[in-house]
Design goal:
This protein is α/β, with parallel strands linked by helices and about 575 residues long. The chain contains 24 helices and 16 strands. Bound molecules: phosphoenolpyruvate and magnesium ion.
Length: about 575
């Protein structure tokens, strides 16, 4: 049994056999073979080794003539690994002793081999890990040929283990039999984490090397509540987790009862709970979970597809689907937030050195005005049919907000010239996600229709911690007193100026912060639909006076640990049974 600790994306327990997804979509299920078929597996293995070595000789020769001998050395090293008799005989022995397929044995042995490199102290040797992965992929490709399976063909519930998932792979999970996910990469507010949260099943990410520690077919427990992944649990642990799985299901069933109840505090204050969505179909899913509308539609996910940017009509159709799904409730469309980890790096000739501080969000939109205006026209056309608000991401200066508004006016003119009727009174707001914007909130309040606080980014810029980097995730701390104080300033100023203020970062969906945020004066929170029932339950158990007391006290601490401990105690008093 092996216990690994990472970062949770969604609570709950999932138990199943692992499917390990390789970077190139190889999944290597545990497959036993009858003793009669062992010779066949051995000959498949032999042929795959030979084919891999032949390919590498060919590649080395080509590279040597085009790029020189040094470049060809890389392939010579790969040939050396594959020619190592000990490696091949370890795989052969596993096939013979354990009666397993050549693919499964190769993947397991190569994974151990990778781990040995990972544990080496010489950084040059650690670098070799990529080469070892490359060798494994080549070998597996030659073993599996065209028989590799994709996740769409799974026939039984599985736990998906991978190094990382692309947004496209993550978005497809709901159409598969995957019941839990464990990833090497990712941090709490990385975009894969956000997509996994909207998928709603238990997941733990940022596990560093889970994909080399678990092999296809291993029994795995994903404990999303306690941020753990347990590989090959012993009998007692497995039994305990089966009990927890059932308890969590009972808890989820109980929460369904909150769906049609309003989020009202015990002293009568109505709190709006909105959904964060990435795909238009989720607007209806949010309503089914009891939301009051869409508080953040991350439209950039429309762009994250192999074909690239969608046309104006395709965008219009997507916005219309969200409007229909929300059934007359408000829908806040955020203009595309591309850049940083999304879209632009893959498309640019030279990657930015520091993309989180680079050409992202509204900066990218204002430098790609034609593309931006296509989206603005689509939003404006859809706005005639629904209760739409529009907001821009990562506004950092008044000039940016003004320029973005000017682009909206241009788009209105374009449409009017084309004879399209346009609603001109659509509320235009900003996402407040940088320390600069927080410090200038008073000025922004004079110009915007509303402010939505994006704590995912605000925290990363305030604390100088890359939100997607698992190596620094211990420093990414919403409870940091500086974060709490920044939120207090922004919310107080918006309240004073009577500017509608929402919070749509992941904090909004964490019960730990609900009383704090309401105590500061927020009356609208936007979160992943999966979080709505729990937050609603909590709100119905508290009073605003109590929340104010909690906020005041939380703001009096000097360290994040004190804040977290205090908020956890207070939340447990209200929700003693629930996982927090
Ligand atoms: C945020 O930064 O808090 C936010 C909601 O936007 P995103 O997570 O899409 O960057
Ligand atoms: Mg953001």
């Amino acid at each position: 049994m092996e216990i690994l600790r990472g970062i949770s994306v969604a609570p709950g327990v999932a138990i199943g056999h692992a499917v390990v997804l390789e970077a190139e979509d190889y999944r290597i299920p545990y497959r036993s073979v009858t003793p009669k078929n062992v010779p066949r597996e051995l000959s498949v293995l032999k042929a795959a080794f030979q084919k891999s070595i032949d390919e590498l000789h060919h590649q080395a020769a080509t590279v040597s003539t085009t790029l020189g001998h040094d470049a060809a050395n890389v392939f010579e090293w790969h040939i050396g690994v594959l020619s190592d008799e000990r490696l091949r005989s370890s795989i052969e022995q596993m096939i013979q002793k354990e009666n397993v397929s050549a693919a499964y044995a190769s993947s397991t042995v190569m994974r151990n081999y990778q781990r040995r490199f990972m544990e080496m102290s010489d950084p040059l040797l650690v670098e070799r890990i990529r080469d070892v992965q490359d060798i494994e992929r080549r070998l597996l490709r030659n073993i599996l040929g065209e028989t590799r399976e994709d996740l769409g063909h799974l026939t039984e519930p599985v736990i998906l283990v991978a190094h990382d998932l692309t947004p496209t792979q993550t978005a497809r999970l709901s159409a598969t039999k995957v019941i839990g996910v464990a990833l090497d990469a990712g941090a709490a507010t990385s975009h894969t984490a956000i997509l996994l949260r909207s998928w709603g099943r238990p997941g733990v990410i940022g596990l560093n090397d889970v994909s080399t520690r678990i092999s296809g077919g291993d029994t795995v427990v994903v404990d999303g509540t306690n941020q753990l992944v347990i590989a090959n649990p012993n009998e007692a642990t497995l039994a305990e987790y089966r009990g927890r799985e059932q308890a969590f299901q009972r808890h989820a069933d109980e929460l369904v009862g909150f769906r049609d109840l309003p989020a009202v505090t015990r002293d009568g204050h109505r709190i709006q709970l909105m959904s964060n969505i990435e795909f238009p179909r989720e607007a209806a899913i949010g309503v089914a979970k009891g939301s009051d509308g869409v508080g953040l539609y991350r439209t950039e996910f429309l762009f994250l597809r192999p074909e690239g940017a969608p046309s104006e009509d395709e965008q219009y159709e997507a916005y219309m689907e969200a409007i229909r799904g929300a059934g007359g409730r408000p829908v806040t469309i955020r203009t595309f937030d591309l850049g940083a980890d999304k879209y632009t790096q893959q498309r640019s000739y030279e990657q930015e050195r520091n993309p989180m501080l680079g050409l992202r969000s509204i900066r990218y939109s204002l430098q790609n005005l034609d593309m931006f205006k296509v989206q603005l026209r689509a939003i404006l056309r859809a706005a005639s049919h629904g209760n739409i608000r529009m907001m821009f991401p990562l506004i950092n200066s008044l000039m940016e907000f003004r320029q973005a508004k000017m682009a909206v006016h241009d788009a209105i003119e374009d449409l009017e010239e084309a004879g399209v009727h346009v609603r001109k009174d659509i509320p235009i707001g900003m996402m407040l996600e940088t320390p600069a914007a927080a410090l200038q909130v008073a000025e922004f309040c004079r110009e915007v229709s509303f402010i939505s606080i994006g704590t995912n980014d605000l925290i990363q810029y305030l604390l100088a911690v890359d939100r997607g980097n698992e190596r620094v995730s211990q420093f990414y701390e919403p409870s940091h007193p500086a974060v709490l104080r920044a939120l207090r300033e922004v919310i107080q100023e918006c309240t004073r100026c009577e500017v509608d203020c929402t919070l749509c970062g992941e904090m909004a969906g964490q019960p730990l912060y609900t009383m704090f945020l309401i105590g500061l004066g927020l009356r609208t929170l936007s979160m992943a639909p999966a979080n709505i029932p729990e937050i609603k339950k909590l709100i119905r158990l508290i009073t605003v006076a109590q929340a104010k007391r909690v906020a005041r006290r939380a703001l009096s601490f000097e360290t994040d640990r004190q804040v977290t401990n205090y908020l956890r105690d207070e939340t447990r008093k209200v929700l003693p049974e629930d996982p927090i």
